[in-house]
Amino acid sequence: MSDPKPETAAAPAAVPVLKKLHIKTYGCQMNVYDSERMAEAMGAEGYVLTDLAEEADMVLLNTCHIREKAAEKVYHELGRLRPLKDANPDLKIGVAGCVAQAEGQEIRRRMPLVDLVVGSQSYHKLPAMARAVEQGKKPVDTDFPVEDKFEHLPERPVQARPSAFLTVQEGCDKFCAFCVVPYTRGAEVSRPAARILGEARKLVEKGVREITLLGQNVNAYHGEGEDGTWSLARLVRALAKIEGLDRIRYTTSHPNDMEDDLIAAHGDEPKLMPYLHLPVQSGSDRILKAMNRKHTAAEYIRLIERIRAARPDLVLSGDFIVGFPGETDADFEETMELVRKVGYGAAYTFKYSARPGTPAAERKDAVPAEVAEARLRRLQELTISQQRATQDAMVGRECTVLFEKPGRWEGQWIGKSDYLQAVFVKGEGLAPGMLARVRIVGAGPNSLEGELI
Ligand code: 5AD
Ligand code: SF4
Description:
This protein has helices at residues 6-9, 29-43, 68-87, 97-103, 105-110, 126-134, 181-184, 193-205, 232-240, 260-268, 285-290, 297-310, 329-342, 369-392, and strands at 19-25, 47-49, 58-63, 92-96, 116-118, 140-141, 163-167, 169-170, 189-190, 210-214, 223-225, 228-230, 247-251, 275-277, 315-322, 346-351, 398-406, 412-417, 422-426, 435-443, 447-452. The chain is an alpha/beta fold. Among the domains are: 19-141, 3-Layer(aba) Sandwich (Rossmann fold); 155-273, 2-Layer Sandwich (Transcription Regulator spoIIAA), CATH 3.30.750.210; 398-452, CATH 2.40.50.140. The strands form six sheets. Strands 2-1-3-4-5-6 form a six-stranded parallel β-sheet, sandwiched between helices. Strands 17-18-19-21-20 form a five-stranded mixed β-barrel. A three-stranded parallel β-sheet has the order 7-10-13, with helices on both faces. It is globular. Iron/sulfur cluster binds next to helix 7. Belongs to the methylthiotransferase family. MiaB subfamily.
């Protein structure tokens, strides 16, 4: 007998229902990496990414808690999502990252429209939590689980960009008096070297040519290797042996963890790029002590001299806080003096923000807001002029550029110099992942213009 319903026999057995996920990422590169991994985990559940919150089935905010402004942005954004949820009650809203970790249930109390809350250490459980939400539950998970989340995440797919982030270390044991990271991200934990090398090899097989190693304290890396504990320098040297991987970077570092072997690697490992983000926060020893930084301004400057002796063309960037409680005009002038002495290619400058639960938040000697504001403006004038000088000094020089994507103009491509500067080049036959020698012919505040050699 013939099949009575041939047309159904030809239909696919189970077509997965595709749902749309919109992720908005706040804060540091570690959150950018985490957002990518969350998107991949949700991809395995049938979620595809969308740039538009309006068409999403789920909106996930991957949040930052470092300063009050960053944390408040999350509540502001949740308020903006309310009309979307009113229009589409099936829309699911999740909060991930450091605000989730720090505030947990409190988020749902303040914003009942939130369906799930997942901390930075638990996001491998996101797919299961999304399923629980489908069943009407409102899960909150801010545990620091014993299992390694990276081992429970799907393998990384083909990368769209030739440059990738790779988290090697998380957490911080430094307890700077102003900072929430030791509380939100927990104690320092390093991933085993073999797992990092495995992830790096797969990224390279999929077209990645530059890897930026990430960690809240990346140079405190002390992961297990086949023969004991590895330092970051050892890891960098092992990564440098991977054929097809051309560039290695790492961020963000603490001065006290700049060990001799890492400084040496800056001198003799050509794949380690000559750009280093090394925050100092203040140039005043009194304030550094109050911040619990455990180093002096002179020690920091001596360290910079040693790294520059190993790699003379090194470009430095740093983080600075002005208006830390008790900071006097004289303290601030010492910060200005340190910046003049060091000379930064880029700088991230912040007004101190009191964070609940940190020792500095207990202090009663706050700097008036307008004083902090005025100091911030002066410091920014100086750091912007140094950044401009670093850009201008590139004109006439030759450098290597890793091309990432086409620019806005016909034939134009955008890439990065060794020093992490954006370079615009017009040229035939350029493609993402190509490395080429370029002569710099023009400089703007945030980008360079180059010609193929
Ligand atoms: N207030 C202002 N800036 C802060 N940072 C960290 N905590 C605070 C705070 N409470 C800055 C530091 C750090 C960078 C990531 O953010 O400069 O290096
Ligand atoms: Fe925060 Fe200091 Fe740790 Fe950096 S080193 S994450 S500023 S506590």
